[in-house]
Specification:
- The chain is of the alpha/beta class.
- The protein folds into 2 domains: 208 residues, 3-Layer(aba) Sandwich (Rossmann fold); 177 residues, no CATH class.
- It is 43% helix and 15% strand.
- It has 14 helices and 13 strands.
- The strands form 4 sheets. Strands 3-2-1-4-5-6-9 form a 7-stranded parallel beta sheet, sandwiched between helices. It has a two-stranded parallel ribbon with strand order 7-8. It has a two-stranded antiparallel sheet with strand order 10-11.
- Helix 1 packs across helix 7, helix 6 packs parallel to helix 8 and helix 11 runs parallel beside helix 13.
- The two termini are 46 Å apart.
Length: 397
């Protein structure tokens, strides 16, 4: 591989480039001060932006990491000049040099529309403008908190602990926020020239370790799920009884209905909820539910999300979590297949979901699965809490 890299002297670059070198990649490092870059990476080819077109002949990919970061106190105009105009100018130089792929490195902060920091504003604008370019394949990737496994820089206090204790402490830290290791980023770069690689990426492309291998996250998440279900049973058992009686009084049929849904690893399970229609069991997909004969009480229950309360049964049975992708019906094959392709089926379904909170229904399986993949990449205890609070406050659908 022949890769051009900008912003090599930042934290990610300093830790990433030695790994890429070990994998036999031909590197060209570009900076506004080539001598500074060369001093940091002796023996690696370096040049300034003015020489990029000439020096980058024959290179295939440019990894753009040059950025004005969040710790800068510059005004918004400076952020826009460096992070937007600088990215567009670098992309144009890449196109002129014959480079085919431009990888714009950003932070997951930019994915949060409520984040109004100058960094987030400028990186969102940069991604939008780069996506409009012609004659160059552009992909923006988003990184959460980046660390290197030896903890020699960030989280350096862990390096002074015995290895098992350090790993346990890191799992606890990582359960609260999404992370990505330098090794994973290096693996991503190694896969850049694989056929069909870009087509297989979710949108947005978030590089994350995820929580699948984090025992601390699994433990805390399960404890929170069970505690929530216990609180509902102990404190609100009377509400469950009242709702059940009102449903039975208003119309004929059971108070609680059972539906077959697709659960973790694609396995079907029986999901419980309060009946909200006149016709009994609700077998329609959620995005067609408005066409069903919904009762007056049912409309109120759906609006307040109270029809979901019997799903505490599924939480106790470890079939669902408080937060996760929305459970779908077996006949929603397109959504199931899209989730399987993106690895989302590895997660337990949730009573509330990120897609739901952002108003994404199941009319478009591909878009819904992309939001599920976003949740999987950003999963953390803090993120789950934010989604749960949004659900309580009635956000989304």
């Amino acid at each position: 591989m022949k890769i051009v890299i900008t912003g090599a002297t930042g934290y990610v670059g300093r830790n990433l480039i030695p790994l890429i070198q070990k994998r036999g990649t031909d590197l060209l490092l570009v900076g506004r001060d080539p001598s500074k870059v060369s001093a940091c990476f002796p023996g690696v080819r370096c040049c300034g932006y003015g020489d990029l077109v000439r020096e980058a002949q024959g290179y295939t990919t440019l990894l753009h990491m040059a950025v004005l970061n969040t710790n800068s106190n510059e005004p918004l105009e400076t952020f826009l000049d460096v992070n937007v105009n600088g990215a567009l100018e670098t992309a144009e130089l890449a196109r002129k040099s014959g480079i085919k792929t431009f990888v714009n490195v950003s932070s997951t902060h930019a994915l949060d529309p409520t984040n109004t920091s100058y960094y987030a504003i400028s990186k969102r604008k940069a991604a939008a403008e780069l996506a409009k370019l012609k004659g160059l394949e552009v992909i923006s990737i988003y990184l959460p908190y980046v660390y290197e496994p030896k903890f020699s820089d960030r989280l350096s206090f862990l390096s002074r602990l015995p290895s098992p204790l350090a790993r346990l402490m890191f799992h606890v830290i990582a359960s609260r926020r999404p992370t990505v290791s330098i090794d994973r980023i290096a693996g991503f770069i190694e896969d850049l020239e694989t056929d069909g690689f870009f087509a297989s990426l979710p949108a947005p492309a978030i590089l994350s370790d995820g929580q699948a291998d984090n025992p601390a996250f699994a433990f805390f998440k399960r404890v929170i799920d069970v505690l929530f279900a216990l609180v509902v049973v102990v404190l609100f058992w009377w509400l469950l009884v009242v709702i059940w009686v009102l449903i039975r009084t208003e119309s004929k049929g059971p108070g609680i209905v059972a539906q077959e849904k697709i659960g973790r690893d694609g396995r079907p399970f029986t999901c419980y909820r309060f009946r909200t229609t006149k016709s009994g069991p609700e077998s329609l997909e959620m995005h067609r539910a408005s066409a069903a004969p919904v009762t007056r009480l049912g409309r109120a229950l759906r609006k307040l999300n109270l029809d979901e309360l019997p799903q505490i049964i599924n939480i106790f049975r470890n079939e669902m979590s408080l937060v996760g992708p929305s459970a779908c019906l077996p006949e929603q094959r397109e959504l199931v297949d899209a989730r399987r392709q993106l690895g989302v089926l590895a997660l337990k379904p949730g009573v509330c979901s990120l897609a739901q909170m952002n108003g994404i229904d199941m009319n478009d399986p591909e878009i819904h699965a992309q939001w599920d993949a976003r949740y999987m990449a950003l999963q953390s205890l803090r993120f789950d809490w934010n989604i749960f609070i949004a659900a309580v406050l009635g956000s989304g659908k």
